Amino acid sequence: MVMQAPPTGTGTGGGAGTAAEPSARQVAGRRWRASRGILAALLALALIAVILAALRPSSSAESLDPESPRPEGGRALAAILAQHGTRVDIARSVDPALVSHGPGTTLVVTHSERLTDADLTILRSSQANLVLVQPTPYALYDLAPGIDVTGTTYSDVDAPGCGLQAANLAGPVSFQESFLYEADPGAMQGDSTACYTETDGARLVQVQEPGRTVTVLGSTAPLVNEHLENEGNAALGMNLAGPGAHTVWLMPDLPEPGTAAGGRSLTDLLPFGVKLFVLGLLVAVLLVALWRARRLGPVVAEALPVVVRSAETVEGRARLYRASRARDRAAEALRAGARDRLVPLLGLPRSAAQDPAAAQQIVSAVAGRSTYEEAAVGGALYGPEPVDDAGLLALTDVLDDLERQVRQS
């Protein structure tokens, strides 16, 4: 048996043991040093997410709602239009009756992300003048072909700088955040006018189509309650939404999931380059796995650093069984060992010890060479789990007695 000398030191045995084992504070310090890099990265990601969420303008389900008095609602503009003789009707869905409206009606389309393909078909067939407020690219392509989104601007007040009468009468407007658009004359059905322009595009683009006009507005500021009093916002909102005697304000309800126009799955939204990157990454991981797997050789037997006595192993396993209350496993281990030792004494093959088909043969042979009945022998070698620790000890005594009588017979 390999022995190891105790650690040398000037203090007592307890002091030497304390010096050999790290304290709780040392363990906590090591864990902190190992994990502080990961925690710092997670905190940085959380901070970036909070900053991006704070910079993103708030929006709600009542945004641009002509019946909402909230700051992001449009009730004030609807009331102003009504005071100036414009009848404002509120539509919560796209009804086929909208097709019957002529050029004397202005149709203000908000929340185009809630429109379905069928809704866009109806709006495309309508002869009413359209005012599209921050339309989605899909709705823009369907209702205002030839106008594309070119970017976003955060500059505040801007002058019209165009020949559109509705913009010139309003004058400078405080747009806040706004999308920018650019018109492609070759893809449109009529002439276009761009107002409140910047280097990358214009905040307001109007296309004169045969029989109607289509106006694309990149900001909600001229329509919502919160910003109507700024600069010429109220005037521009009135000139765009209520130039005639009748205005239909379309505020569509949320559609059923998956029915919105242009709805696509996550894989459809991923660029082709990202898909190639993921595919290449999977191939690389597979190749690395195959490369590392080829380096696995045969199992190498190594000498144990310490030889442990069999009695210590038995005692350790018994304590584990007792801690987990695994009397069934402990009883089966005792019975399997007893059967392995009894079978050679009975003249039976060793494979019969764990063969359920040979159970009756083993029980009969043991009962014939001992003072126990077959029922008692069967209960000892193949019986149920002991109900308590006392029953497990009693089983041990019975198995020892059976093995002793068979050896002496």
Strand order of the largest sheet: 1-11-2-3-10-9-8
Question: Low-confidence parts, pLDDT < 50 over ≥5 residues?
Answer: 1-20
Total DSSP helices: 14
Mean pLDDT: 82
Shape: elongated
Protein structure class: alpha/beta
What about the largest sheet?
7 strands, mixed
Description:
28% of the residues are buried. The strands form 3 sheets. A 7-stranded mixed beta sheet has the order 1-11-2-3-10-9-8, with helices on one face. It has helices at 13-20, 24-55, 75-83, 117-125, 137-143, 165-170, 233-241, 266-269, 272-294, 310-323, 327-346, 359-368, 374-382, 389-408, and strands at 87-91, 105-109, 129-133, 147-153, 157-158, 173-174, 178-183, 191-197, 202-209, 212-217, 246-250. The protein has 14 helices and 11 strands. Helix content is 44%, strand content 14%. It has 409 residues and is an alpha/beta fold.
Question: What layout of secondary structure does this protein have?
Answer:
Layout: H1 13-20, H2 24-55, H3 75-83, E1 87-91, E2 105-109, H4 117-125, E3 129-133, H5 137-143, E4 147-153, E5 157-158, H6 165-170, E6 173-174, E7 178-183, E8 191-197, E9 202-209, E10 212-217, H7 233-241, E11 246-250, H8 266-269, H9 272-294, H10 310-323, H11 327-346, H12 359-368, H13 374-382, H14 389-408
Parallel strand pairs: 1-11, 2-3, 2-11, 3-10
Antiparallel strand pairs: 4-7, 5-6, 8-9, 9-10
Give the structure's gist in a few sentences.
By secondary structure, the chain is of the alpha/beta class.
